């Protein structure tokens, strides 16, 4: 029988492979011509370490240098050893391009056009080779607007296992897809698209779910509801649908139908404009009740325009609600899509050519944002405090013990971070995070104290920074100079100076992480 495993790559591309009984994920991926990064294939190097978002697996055989028991408990696995015990979704720490694969291209036929109102149109596509289109509920594709060179990003509103695929579009005066659907679209048109993309998708339910939709952000949540109906979850599922005007209210009959199909499903809707038929006036946060957030033991799926997504994030913070998981999809700003506010678009060839390596693969795919908050500020602060304590300890141990060669290497590592900081902003986030980690870890690696080294390596600061920092992330301007000053203190044998720098550095690093996390969530 086997199982389906979705490989979610860093650039947003998702590929689904069928894994046979007793077959490893890596072997199945290679059969599908997807080259997951690997060196040993024996569970000894850790190169293929990935994170399991959902599903269960037999981890196989491995050594601690490749995967620790603590990492296994958190959900990490080695694709060269892991054998699925259910359908799975895993995050592969590589781009699809590096794995020598790419999003699939499809040709489809427009088979249905539903004009719900002056502001919302749904359309249905029947793809050729439908069996090759495997996506996760909540994901999106890039659709080429017929008769133009423009592409737009839209989330599936149908489940992954139905024959036809549907999408929902907010009609705007200037949007390329809006103009096509409003004025030119005809059943029978040929429509091309690529995908699927995005990290906004349903994970295996392990706690109550709160689904929050703004406008046509309802589309991916309908896909999620459809999937949940296939194997009804025991946990409560509550959806809040927010719109602006009466004309924006669509899909109520669909939501009512899920009341019968999905046990423990409840929903509500609200409009911000007074005088509509909606039962409430205001914003989605006003109808979220304490039972819906379950004292934080809840997974939240949030999709809508930037102001709505940002407002929800800010409300959660102000209410002191820390959800177990927060997954979001945020529509692109108008200026990136020619005035079409409720969608995303791939970067133009001109933009890619002009910005070169400064634009990420995910940004090139779409200006629509999908993401997940993997840790809380308090977690980050705790790890930074722990790092400070360990660095104060390693300073006591190593002060006056470094050879001239070791001091020279320590300085080279400090200087390496300078190149990736531009004033008070991160220049190249990937390189900055890498060089910063090498600098902070260096004294532990040469100390000859395995306990301190292991304690340091258990910290998640590197992963937290990698998940949060982007090009232009604000950072305290003294960060690179602090690294150099610590080295100078070691060269001069000035223990007290080194300790003072380390403590000040930890304090200001918390400020940087707090700002970066807020920016990632869109909190004003």
Structural account:
The protein is an alpha+beta fold and 524 residues long. It folds into 4 domains: 3-92, Beta-grasp domain (Ubiquitin-like (UB roll)), CATH 3.10.20.30; 104-197, Translation factors (Elongation Factor Tu (Ef-tu), domain 3, Beta Barrel); 209-337 and 347-373, Nucleotide-binding domain of ferredoxin-NADP reductase (FNR) module (Rossmann fold, 3-Layer(aba) Sandwich), CATH 3.40.50; 378-521, Up-down Bundle (Four Helix Bundle (Hemerythrin (Met), subunit A)), CATH 1.20.120.530. Helix content is 35%, strand content 22%. The protein has 16 helices and 21 strands. It has helices spanning 25-31, 69-74, 176-184, 218-230, 252-261, 290-293, 306-318, 349-355, 361-365, 377-398, 404-418, 429-446, 450-457, 461-468, 479-492, 495-521, and strands at 3-9, 14-19, 49-54, 57-58, 76-78, 83-84, 88-92, 104-115, 120-127, 140-144, 151-155, 165-170, 190-197, 209-214, 237-243, 265-271, 299-304, 325-330, 369-373, 421-422, 425-426. The strands form 5 sheets. It has a 6-stranded antiparallel beta sheet. Helix 7 (306-318) links the parallel strand 17 and strand 18 (325-330). Helix 10 (377-398) packs antiparallel against helix 16 (495-521), helix 11 (404-418) runs antiparallel to helix 15 (479-492) and helix 15 runs antiparallel to helix 16 (495-521). The model has no long low-confidence stretch (mean pLDDT 88).
């Amino acid at each position: 029988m086997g199982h389906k495993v979705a490989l979610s790559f860093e650039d947003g591309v998702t590929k689904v492979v069928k894994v046979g009984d007793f077959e490893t994920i890596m072997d199945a991926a290679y059969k599908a011509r997807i080259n997951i990064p690997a060196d040993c294939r024996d569970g000894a190097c850790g190169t293929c370490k990935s994170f399991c978002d959902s599903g269960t697996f037999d981890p196989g055989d491995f050594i601690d240098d490749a995967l620790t028991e603590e990492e296994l408990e958190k959900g990490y696995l080695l694709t060269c050893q892991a054998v699925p015990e259910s359908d799975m979704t895993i995050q592969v720490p590589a781009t699809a391009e590096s794995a020598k694969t790419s999003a699939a291209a499809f040709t489809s036929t427009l088979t249905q056009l539903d004009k719900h109102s002056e502001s919302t149109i749904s359309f249905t596509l029947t793809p050729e080779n439908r069996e090759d289109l495997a996506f996760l509920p909540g994901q999106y594709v890039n659709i080429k607007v017929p008769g133009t060179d423009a592409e737009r990003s839209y989330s599936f509103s149908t489940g992954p296992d139905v024959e036809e695929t549907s999408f929902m579009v907010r009609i705007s005066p200037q949007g390329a897809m809006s103009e096509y659907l409003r004025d030119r679209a005809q059943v029978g048109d040929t429509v091309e698209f690529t995908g699927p993309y995005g990290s906004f998708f349903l994970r295996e339910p392990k706690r109550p779910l709160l689904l929050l939709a703004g406008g046509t952000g309802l589309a991916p949540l309908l896909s999620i509801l459809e999937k949940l109906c296939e194997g009804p979850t025991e946990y409560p599922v509550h959806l809040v649908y927010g719109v602006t005007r009466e004309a924006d209210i669509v899909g109520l009959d669909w939501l009512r139908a899920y009341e019968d199909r999905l046990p423990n499903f409840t929903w509500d809707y609200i409009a911000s404009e007074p005088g509509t038929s909606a039962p409430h006036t205001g914003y989605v946060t006003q109808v979220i009740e304490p039972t819906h957030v379950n004292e934080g033991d809840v997974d939240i799926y949030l999709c809508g325009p930037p102001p709505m997504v940002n407002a929800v994030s800010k409300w959660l913070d102000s209410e002191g609600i820390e959800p177990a998981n927060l997954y979001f999809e945020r529509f692109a700003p108008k200026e990136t899509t020619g005035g079409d506010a409720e969608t995303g678009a791939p970067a133009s060839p001109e933009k890619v050519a002009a910005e070169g390596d400064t634009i990420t693969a995910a940004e090139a795919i779409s200006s629509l944002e999908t993401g997940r908050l993997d840790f809380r500020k308090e977690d980050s602060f705790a790890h930074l405090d722990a790092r400070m304590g360990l660095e104060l300890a390693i300073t006591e141990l190593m002060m006056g013990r470094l050879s001239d060669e070791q001091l020279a290497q320590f300085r080279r590592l400090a200087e390496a971070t300078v190149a990736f900081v531009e004033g008070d902003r991160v220049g190249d986030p990937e390189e900055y995070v890498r060089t910063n980690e090498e600098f902070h870890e260096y004294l532990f690696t040469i100390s000859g104290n395995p306990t301190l080294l292991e304690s340091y390596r258990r910290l998640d600061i590197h992963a937290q920074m990698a998940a949060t920092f982007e090009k232009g992330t604000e950072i305290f301007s003294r960060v690179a100079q602090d690294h150099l000053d610590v080295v100078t203190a070691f060269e001069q044998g000035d223990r007290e100076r080194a300790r003072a720098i380390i403590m000040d550095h930890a304090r200001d690093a918390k400020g940087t992480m707090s700002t970066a996390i807020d920016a990632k969530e869109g909190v004003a």
